[in-house]
Design brief:
The protein is an alpha/beta fold. It has one domain (2-213): Aldolase class I (TIM Barrel, Alpha-Beta Barrel), CATH 3.20.20. 33% of the residues lie in helices and 19% in strands. The protein has 8 helices and 8 strands; from the N terminus they run E-H-E-H-E-H-E-H-E-E-H-E-H-E-H-H. The protein has an 8-stranded parallel β-sheet. Helix 3 (67-76) links the parallel strand 3 and strand 4 (81-85). Helix 3 packs parallel to helix 4. The radius of gyration is 16 Å and the shape is globular. The structure holds D-xylitol-5-phosphate (DX5) and zinc ion. D-xylitol-5-phosphate is lined by residues 5, 7-8, 28, 30, 61, 135, 137-142, 171-174, 191-195. Its EC number is 5.1.3.1. Belongs to the ribulose-phosphate 3-epimerase family. It catalyses: D-ribulose 5-phosphate = D-xylulose 5-phosphate.
Length: 215
């Protein structure tokens, strides 16, 4: 699955930018609060407006503190998948997953490049997606951190060995070159911001990424 990240779009033309990626699988929306990450993007009212015009289901990536307080709201406005950061959860991440699912969305758990998967292996089965960050969260356009690939492979092994219905997602620095490495490591969902919105023709960029991921 290809999930273009709206972070690299023109925020003054959101409806048009959403329409340009209509043949994507999910539309990735990066919510940042200037506390969990040193950047501020958009919040619930704007995401709700995007959801109303998007032909593609929303994949909301919450890079915020206190995700337990906000995550169910994104499910309520119709997001398909709502992902919270493991590092931001103060309580049991499984409680957040339960609340997101109760509000009608898939529940995702995200880990930063330096966060070991071992700490979260036991809670994985209570989530629907696992987002492995391949850059430090906060900004688009950064270089893919190849050192994270063993963690993607480990995630694939855990999911397969445990017969879990968890999609492994990679986010950060994914382009026509790096997507092959991520696909080979076993990722299912590929987030790409600058590689899609930085292209002259986002629809063609999505098709090219999809072809490379399945090559
Ligand atoms: C970074 C965001 C990513 C970002 C990816 O914190 O989570 O989704 O938009 O952008 P690229 O694909 O340009 O690295
Ligand atoms: Zn993201």
């Amino acid at each position: 699955m290809i999930a273009p990240s709206l972070l690299s779009a023109d925020f003054a033309r959101l409806a048009d930018e959403v329409a340009r990626v209509a043949d994507a699988d999910w539309l990735h929306v990066d919510v940042m609060d200037a506390h969990f990450v040193p950047n501020l993007t958009l919040g619930l009212p704007v995401v709700e407006a995007i959801e109303a015009v998007s032909p593609v289901p929303l994949d909301c990536h919450l890079m915020i503190e206190a995700p337990e307080r906000w995550a169910p709201g994104y499910a309520e406005i119709g997001a398909r998948n709502v992902t919270v950061h493991a590092e931001a959860c103060t309580g049991d991440p499984r409680d957040v997953a339960r609340d997101i699912r109760a509000a009608g969305a898939l529940a995702g758990l995200a880990v930063k490049p330096g966060t070991p998967l071992e700490d979260y292996e036991d809670v994985l089965r209570d989530f629907d997606t696992l987002l492995v960050m391949t850059v430090e969260p906060g900004f688009g356009g950064q270089a893919f951190i190849a050192e994270v690939l063993p963690k993607v492979r480990r995630a694939r092994e855990l999911v397969d060995a445990g017969h879990l219905t968890v999609l492994v997602e990679v986010d950060g620095g994914v382009n026509a070159d790096t997507i092959e490495q991520a696909a080979a490591a076993g990722a299912d969902v590929f987030v790409a911001g600058s590689a899609v919105y930085g292209a002259d023709d986002p629809a063609r960029a999505i098709a090219a990424l999809r072809a490379r991921a399945t090559a």
